[in-house]
Amino acid sequence: MLSNYQGSANALVELLKQQGVEDEVVLSAIANTPRHLFVDEVLKHKSYENTALPIGQGQTISQPFIVAKMTEVLKQVGVKGRILEVGTGSGYQTAVLAQVFEQVFSIERIKSLQWQARRRLHLLDLYNVTMKHGDGWKGWASKAPFAGIIVTAAAQSVPDELLAQLEDGGAMVIPIGVEAQTLTLFVKQGEQFIRHALAPVRFVPLVAGEVG
Ligand code: SAH
């Protein structure tokens, strides 16, 4: 699936290592994921650059460094098993998660993006992913609790309904803020959530409601 692009994918992995990504499982997931299949034909030549790119509908495929870091953070705090992703977008982050964790549930509010992402994941034979069209602010109560939650759009306030769907010992990584956003980690310990500010980031907004 990577063929002509394997060299570019390997170079991207080297760059991510230099920038501090250490987890070997995460790095090999990045090396094995054909990012050129997650963008439009005209952007393929940029698909292994460490940048966010437009995917239509005013949305973006996340920067590979951010994808790797968010995945690594969950793994480093001991998350294993079932993951909820909010904001499927292109499905690139979903594909990486599916190679690192046992099972991934992913929600997207824009139906056309969700359909394209679904096709890509089938093409890559990643069958441990379940997708849904809907409003991720509400999470996915019928599939909860989750060991990890990853939100790939910026929330203006902490989504309590998502925190409520974490299992004990579970963790959520999410950008919080509007203009100035902070990548934030919440770890559930009993009835408490331990909050860590990780880094300044820039994501598209987490919007309430769904569109057809
Ligand atoms: N991880 C994706 C990022 C896509 S951008 C990728 O790398 O391709 C963020 C996505 O979140 C967009 O597709 C947007 O439509 C979606 N989104 C925004 N608000 C949402 C909500 N409330 N529920 C579900 N998806 C949402």
From TrEMBL:
InterPro entries: PCMT, SAM-dependent_MTases_sf. One of its GO terms (cellular component) is cytoplasm. Keywords: Cytoplasm, Methyltransferase, S-adenosyl-L-methionine, Transferase. The active site is at S62. It catalyses: [protein]-L-isoaspartate + S-adenosyl-L-methionine = [protein]-L-isoaspartate alpha-methyl ester + S-adenosyl-L-homocysteine. One of its GO terms (biological process) is methylation. Gene3D superfamilies: Vaccinia Virus protein VP39. Its main location: cytoplasm. It comes from the Bacteria. CDD domains: AdoMet_MTases. It holds the Pfam family PCMT. Its EC number is 2.1.1.77. One of its GO terms (molecular function) is protein-L-isoaspartate (D-aspartate) O-methyltransferase activity. It is found in: Cytoplasm. Catalyzes the methyl esterification of L-isoaspartyl residues in peptides and proteins that result from spontaneous decomposition of normal L-aspartyl and L-asparaginyl residues. It plays a role in the repair and/or degradation of damaged proteins. Belongs to the methyltransferase superfamily. L-isoaspartyl/D-aspartyl protein methyltransferase family. This is Protein-L-isoaspartate O-methyltransferase.
